Amino acid sequence: MSYQRAAAFFLQGGLAFVLLYAAVSALQEPSAWISYIPAFTTSLIPAALSLILISYFQIILAIWLVSGFYTRYAALVAAALIFGLVLFNLNTLIITFRDIGLVLAALALFFLTSNRQLNNR
Q: What is the pTM of this model?
Protein backbone atom coordinates (compact mmCIF):
# COMPACT_ATOMS: atom_id res chain seq x y z
CA MET A 1 0.00 0.00 0.00
CA SER A 2 1.40 3.37 -1.01
CA TYR A 3 1.64 6.26 1.40
CA GLN A 4 -1.08 8.03 -0.56
CA ARG A 5 -3.45 5.09 -0.23
CA ALA A 6 -2.63 4.74 3.48
CA ALA A 7 -3.29 8.45 4.07
CA ALA A 8 -6.60 8.23 2.18
CA PHE A 9 -7.56 5.11 4.16
CA PHE A 10 -6.98 6.82 7.51
CA LEU A 11 -8.72 10.02 6.46
CA GLN A 12 -11.72 8.08 5.15
CA GLY A 13 -11.94 6.00 8.32
CA GLY A 14 -11.48 8.95 10.65
CA LEU A 15 -14.08 11.11 8.96
CA ALA A 16 -16.53 8.22 8.70
CA PHE A 17 -16.10 7.44 12.40
CA VAL A 18 -16.76 11.04 13.44
CA LEU A 19 -19.86 11.29 11.23
CA LEU A 20 -21.19 7.94 12.42
CA TYR A 21 -20.56 8.73 16.09
CA ALA A 22 -22.30 12.10 15.85
CA ALA A 23 -25.27 10.61 14.00
CA VAL A 24 -25.80 7.69 16.35
CA SER A 25 -25.33 9.88 19.40
CA ALA A 26 -27.83 12.44 18.06
CA LEU A 27 -30.38 9.72 17.39
CA GLN A 28 -29.89 8.19 20.85
CA GLU A 29 -29.76 11.44 22.81
CA PRO A 30 -31.30 14.25 20.74
CA SER A 31 -31.44 16.65 23.68
CA ALA A 32 -27.64 16.86 23.69
CA TRP A 33 -27.53 17.79 19.99
CA ILE A 34 -30.72 19.72 19.24
CA SER A 35 -29.11 23.06 20.12
CA TYR A 36 -26.79 22.74 17.09
CA ILE A 37 -29.73 23.00 14.69
CA PRO A 38 -29.77 26.61 13.41
CA ALA A 39 -32.75 28.55 14.76
CA PHE A 40 -33.65 30.04 11.37
CA THR A 41 -34.35 26.56 9.98
CA THR A 42 -37.01 25.77 12.57
CA SER A 43 -39.54 27.94 10.75
CA LEU A 44 -39.25 25.54 7.79
CA ILE A 45 -38.89 22.21 9.57
CA PRO A 46 -39.04 21.26 13.27
CA ALA A 47 -35.63 21.03 14.92
CA ALA A 48 -36.21 17.42 16.01
CA LEU A 49 -36.96 16.35 12.44
CA SER A 50 -33.95 18.31 11.14
CA LEU A 51 -31.73 16.49 13.62
CA ILE A 52 -33.06 13.10 12.49
CA LEU A 53 -32.61 13.96 8.81
CA ILE A 54 -29.09 15.28 9.34
CA SER A 55 -28.22 12.18 11.38
CA TYR A 56 -29.36 9.81 8.64
CA PHE A 57 -27.53 11.93 6.06
CA GLN A 58 -24.36 11.62 8.16
CA ILE A 59 -24.75 7.84 8.30
CA ILE A 60 -25.14 7.67 4.52
CA LEU A 61 -22.15 9.98 4.08
CA ALA A 62 -20.01 7.82 6.40
CA ILE A 63 -20.89 4.73 4.38
CA TRP A 64 -20.14 6.60 1.17
CA LEU A 65 -16.74 7.66 2.49
CA VAL A 66 -15.64 4.13 3.37
CA SER A 67 -17.11 2.61 0.21
CA GLY A 68 -14.35 4.15 -1.87
CA PHE A 69 -16.87 5.09 -4.56
CA TYR A 70 -16.03 8.59 -5.79
CA THR A 71 -14.29 9.30 -2.51
CA ARG A 72 -13.28 12.80 -3.49
CA TYR A 73 -16.91 13.88 -3.86
CA ALA A 74 -17.87 12.27 -0.57
CA ALA A 75 -15.00 14.19 1.03
CA LEU A 76 -16.20 17.45 -0.50
CA VAL A 77 -19.75 16.86 0.77
CA ALA A 78 -18.36 16.04 4.22
CA ALA A 79 -16.29 19.24 4.22
CA ALA A 80 -19.32 21.31 3.22
CA LEU A 81 -21.56 19.69 5.85
CA ILE A 82 -19.10 20.13 8.69
CA PHE A 83 -18.21 23.66 7.60
CA GLY A 84 -21.92 24.54 7.54
CA LEU A 85 -22.36 23.17 11.05
CA VAL A 86 -19.46 25.31 12.28
CA LEU A 87 -20.62 28.38 10.37
CA PHE A 88 -24.16 28.22 11.75
CA ASN A 89 -22.90 27.59 15.28
CA LEU A 90 -20.26 30.29 15.64
CA ASN A 91 -21.67 31.06 19.09
CA THR A 92 -20.38 27.62 20.19
CA LEU A 93 -16.95 27.96 18.59
CA ILE A 94 -15.39 27.12 21.94
CA ILE A 95 -16.68 23.58 21.27
CA THR A 96 -16.90 23.41 17.48
CA PHE A 97 -13.41 24.80 16.79
CA ARG A 98 -12.21 21.19 16.52
CA ASP A 99 -14.54 20.71 13.58
CA ILE A 100 -12.41 23.11 11.54
CA GLY A 101 -9.71 20.43 11.64
CA LEU A 102 -12.26 17.94 10.31
CA VAL A 103 -13.14 20.31 7.46
CA LEU A 104 -9.46 20.53 6.58
CA ALA A 105 -9.07 16.73 6.83
CA ALA A 106 -12.00 16.29 4.44
CA LEU A 107 -10.48 18.80 2.05
CA ALA A 108 -7.14 16.98 2.28
CA LEU A 109 -8.94 13.76 1.33
CA PHE A 110 -10.60 15.58 -1.56
CA PHE A 111 -7.24 16.72 -2.96
CA LEU A 112 -5.48 13.46 -2.13
CA THR A 113 -8.00 11.40 -4.08
CA SER A 114 -8.10 13.68 -7.10
CA ASN A 115 -6.65 11.11 -9.47
CA ARG A 116 -8.65 8.26 -10.97
CA GLN A 117 -6.44 5.61 -9.44
CA LEU A 118 -7.59 6.42 -5.89
CA ASN A 119 -11.19 7.40 -6.69
CA ASN A 120 -12.53 4.03 -7.71
CA ARG A 121 -10.59 1.28 -6.05
A: 0.90
